[in-house]
Design brief:
With about 60 residues, the protein is an all-alpha fold. The protein has one domain. Helix content is about 90%, strand content about 0%. The protein has two helices and no strands. The two termini are about 15 Å apart.
Length: about 60
């Protein structure tokens, strides 16, 4: 169970990083509305990554 949570956390971290990069590119180009949308996506993925990371950690600690 922890293994799956770690995988899901990693996937969400990757999606968040891509969204952050896209937001930065749009911001640099002056496309602030697009930058904001990508920032929101990054935040959502970061939040999901945190939930899965917490679950993985709690599951690993409980197994000890």
């Amino acid at each position: 169970m922890a293994h799956e949570s770690h995988k899901k956390a990693a996937e969400h971290h990757e999606h968040a990083a891509k969204a952050h990069h896209a937001a930065a590119e749009h911001h640099a180009a002056g496309n602030h509305a697009e930058a904001e949308e990508h920032s929101k996506k990054a935040h959502e993925h970061s939040h999901e990554a945190h939930k899965h990371s917490t679950h993985a950690h709690d599951t690993t600690v409980a197994a000890k």
